[in-house]
Every structure is written in structure tokens, then in C-alpha cells.
Amino acid sequence: MPGPASGLTDGFARFKSCRLHPSAKGISNMKDREGPLHNAGINTRLSHLGNDPAEFHGFVNPPVVHASTVLFPNARAMETRGQKYTYATRGTPTTDALCEAIDALEGSAGTILVPSGLAAVTVPFLAFLSAGDHALIVDSVYGPTRHFCDTMLKRLGVEVDYYDPLVGAAIEALIKPNTKLVHTEAPGSNTFEMQDIPAIAAIAHKHGAVVTMDNTWATPVYFKPLDFGADISIHAATKYPSGHSDILMGTVSANAKHWPQLQEANITLGICGAPDDAYQILRGLRTMGVRLERHYESALTIAKWLEDREEVATVLHPALPSFPSHELWKRDFKGASGIFSFVLAVDAPEKFKAKAHAFLDALQIFGLGWSWGGFESLAVHVNLNDRRICKAPAEGPVIRLQIGLEDVVDIKADIERGFAAANAV
Predict the structure, then answer these.
(1) pLDDT per residue over 136-193, tens digit each?
(2) What CATH code is carried by the domain that includes residue 379?
(3) What integer pLDDT is reported at residue 350 of this predicted model?
(4) Residue 125 counted as domain residue
(5) 35 found inside a domain
């Protein structure tokens, strides 16, 4: 009777054999692994999705496969691409492991990996838009997405209009005969407006438009866009999946109807995520649930505390009952992440920048950095000059906070330092 080592070897031999046949792509194995996990808690699922130790001699984590060239056993196999892996831009066991985990979390038919969160937005835009098409983009969109729309998309002959994030079903009045894509983001970048995704998706689909959603803030742990009508779920894995401020990557997940076109566009563009980065993101997923719980709890504690501060005009956090679109968040989302904004109370517009800079420069625990989703707290003075509809608050400058994993008492003390410095200006 074979011992454990030979059993794993036999299993690996069977695995290698199935990789040579396009009909055996590991999908049934993934479904088998998802079976007992389907109704499990999110932290259980995050701990086990996307890897199968039996496939790799029992090692808990999948190996990092570095590759460009993949060899074929014969000319016929090369001609027909008659094996699972053909060239590294089309996937490796490492990138597949991450894609399978994301698909399980998103409920998607397929996922592509791209080198950044911005690429996760631009690749589906290029996949589903052509010259002469019209796209509707939410006005509270991620700034670099707006730049892409206003420059490259327009240069390629795509008409772009921006809409109020609170428009809901009234978006139908903005639909044109050539509207092919509606892009959503909830909550919105920097000002955190919520969107009625089901209502918007229903109208968009009625007119034959694709619905994309940037879901980076909530992650599929707290919101699953495809379950609410979106066709494409976009995620900057740079943020919470990574969790350590050291990886750039984006994921794009599609429903069954739109997966073939997304996949074809990705292959045509030659955009792919690196295996080392995929490994790091997969590792980050294992702790994402518990990290998000801490971010959620600490950020909401800080947000509630800020509401009572005289230095603060208003707090922009969807989980606060005082927030204008709180009911949409409460209806659709399972939680909140660690990033929100507040408006510093300043009595004169000419003091906005000086007081904002004084606040930021006095911080000692918060870093001044553009990203978020890592373990450390970050702060940014938000620029809203590019808004067309959702204008900047008149009460003062907007400060965006990423609440990290530090102790809340220390975070509060640091914000107190910032307030003292701003008050002195």
C-alpha cells in the first residue's frame, strides 16, 4: 500500500496529465473544493479558496511559476493550443489560483489579472467601447479614470458624459441610442456618495448597455456587484487584498455573458499580472477578512468621534446614519472599509489650503500618501476641482483618511495634533 508521499506523487502525476487536455481545466476540481465552502463563513472561505495542496505535493501555498515560454509535446498540440498553458500572458498555475479565488468570491464566470487598479478600469472600457459609442461615467469617479475618459477614450472617438451618483433610475433620461457602457463606483471616490446599483443596472440593461463597477472600497467581502446587476466587477487588489502597501495589481471579474469579450480583449492587449504579485495577493486574501473587520470597526469609531468635533464641518462616511445616502449603504452592503473623508471647518476659502496643510504636516502616525488599504493610516488633502456635478463642499477642505491597524487611541491623538496645528493658522 503506498504511503503518503507516493499518494501525493500519484496525485501530482494525474494533475500533470489533466493539464495537457483543454477539456480538463481544473474547473470541476475548483467546484468540488468550493462545494463544502459554499455556505462557510467568509474567513473560512478566504483561508481555503484558490489553492489545492494535493496539486503541489501537499504544500499549503501554490508555487510561484515564473514563465514566458511554455513547451508543447508535438507540432499538432502547438498548432491547436491543445493544452491548458500555452504562453505565460494567458496564465500560469499561480495566476490561475488567484483568479479561481476571486471568481469564488465574486460569483463570476471569469477573472483577469492586470498590473494596477487603473488598468482594471481601462481594460474593460477598451473591451466594450468602440468609436462612435457613448459612455456614462459617475461624476464621483476615481480621478485617473476620469483622466482616461477625457483623454484616451475621447481620442478614440468615444463620447463621454458624467452623471450624478444619486441619479438612480432617473439615469434613463441620460441614455442615448449609442450608450454602450455605464460605469459605477460605490461609494464614490473621496466624497463617498452611494449609488443605487440595481436601479441603474436595470435601466442600463433595458437599453443594451454594459454595467461596470469599481468595487475597491467594499471588496467582494462586503458587496458583490454581479449579485446586484453589474456585469463587470473591478477591484484594485493593490488595496485590501494586498494589505501591505507593496503590490500593484487589479482584478476584473465578469458574468457569463460578458466574460468571453473581456477575456479576448485582455489577450489582445497583452495585459497580464505577474506571478510573484499574484502570489502576494493570494497570500493577502487569507487575512483580508480579519483585517477588514479591524479597518471597519476603527474607521467607524473615528468617524463617529469626528462628528462631535467642532473642528469638523461634516463627516463623509456611508455607514453613519447622518450621511445622505446611508440607507442605500445599509440596504445593499454588508460592511464598510477603512477609508472615509471629513470636511475641515474653515471660515474663509482663502484659508482652506493653509489649514489643510497645517493639519497634515502635524500628523506623526498618519502618512501622507495616495494609496490606501494597507496596514498603515494615511491622510490626503482631496482635490475635487475636476468635478462637473458633485462639487466640492463649501464649508472647508476635504481630508481623506485611511484608518489603518494602529490602536484607535493613538490614531485619535494624532488627529488631535492635526487639529491643534490647523487651529493655530
Answers:
(1) 999 999 999 999 999 999 999 999 999 999 999 999 999 999 999 999 999 999 999 9
(2) 3.90.1150.10
(3) 96
(4) no
(5) no
Instruction: Judge whether 257 and 231 are in contact, CB under 8 Å.
Output: yes
Give all strands of the β-sheet with 134-138 in edge-to-edge order: 110-114, 250-254, 232-236, 210-214, 179-185, 134-138, 159-163
Inside any domain, residue 47: no
pLDDT in tens, 260-275: 999 999 999 999 999 9
What is the residue range of 352's domain? 288-423
162 part of a folded domain? no
* Domain total of the chain: 1
Confidence (pTM): 0.89
Mean pLDDT score, 45-58: 86
Count of CB atoms situated within 10 Å of the CB of 54: 16
* pLDDT > 70: percent of the chain: 92
